[in-house]
């Protein structure tokens, strides 16, 4: 009788509310006002040529959530390589176990895959022991299936480059992580185990354009794929990103925000494989609930429910994009932010908060502002062409099977892609950063952090600049979390803000 009166969504809301009240054995009059200032902020200190400051802010959103299921990971000198950083953000569903294990083990699995084709990626003895402990899990028959899974990926017709192995490493790492979660470690439910959405990034710095010598031969094919964009002469770095589920990343370049991740939920019409595989999607919701439980269509875990797991696959969307001196910041955030704010709103808020923080700092120091124009808005100089506000794809994988369908068009312009909650948002890479110890240097060409001795005044100035960007990253991440709370978010919220070298160029003007 009850199921006939209420929709699956209403029943789910009733169950969630009951569980929340059951766990919160506190009189209501103690919780009349829930302060939004309980968010915790975690600054990160990382040495990278392209990164000026990194900070993560998280909030449990105690009004709606009894537990915090979000996890994040930041690894400096990933694989013992200078100017290579790893960033990961994991949004747990129905518990924190999957997100917690993934945040620890997925970076190791990815590093192991990278080291197999690139010896420059080195593993520590501890990381090697972790891989060896899983030897009995990945048997020959599993490896055969894994090879089939990674071989069905097809690259887009953009540029033929060396990034194919990196994308295969992402795919295999996600596949193996999902297999490890099938062991059920730390799971307490007998019916429905936890799962997580994930976004992972590798930011490589100090990389020149590997196609400069072949630009003449490739000019025609590149122009056909991206008629409105031009190849940059120098690439300061490359961002490799992989995501599954509803965790998104936004990159701001020359004042424009781009979401380069793909939303894997029932609202994404390209996820039609669900219906082809016999999945049930409730029809009484705007975009429906998969098996009447969840909107996410890709992710890691979810093994407790065999029927649900049949539809939720661990196949990531992967893409590589160049990072140059026009790139200003990267934002990674869990569903709690994107359910109430879209790409354009988040970009505008971040730029505004940066400007507010800059003005506040100069007022405190009783110094005049170096520029009356907003810090992160694009300049209007004649030299700025339309292509400077766009990006191009260096490499991209397209899953092409009934288990791993494409979510992109191989010939579509990146600026036409959709973000998770934006109707007209443009797509672009995202993710985390840390502090650059060479923050006072020009970034028109990546240079070493130890080019020569510095006097005390230079060190003091460098320290002040470093502190400024660290404080700016903390301020922006905290304000974005608060904005999501005020906007009515009902989920855990975690925001990672990475200020890139482009923000320094704007700061010095």
From TrEMBL:
SUPFAM superfamilies: PP2C-like
InterPro entries: PP2C, PPM-type-like_dom_sf, PPM-type_phosphatase-like_dom
Region (Disordered): 406-463
Residue ranges, compositional bias (Basic and acidic residues): 433-444, 452-463
Assigned protein family: Belongs to the PP2C family.
Molecular function as annotated in GO: protein serine/threonine phosphatase activity
Cited Pfam families: PP2C (PF00481)
Gene3D superfamilies: PPM-type phosphatase domain
Species of origin: Panthera pardus (Leopard)
UniProt superkingdom: Eukaryota
Protein name: Protein phosphatase 2C-like domain-containing protein 1 isoform X4
Record gene name: PP2D1
Biased composition (Polar residues): 406-432
Ranges for domain PPM-type phosphatase: 53-500
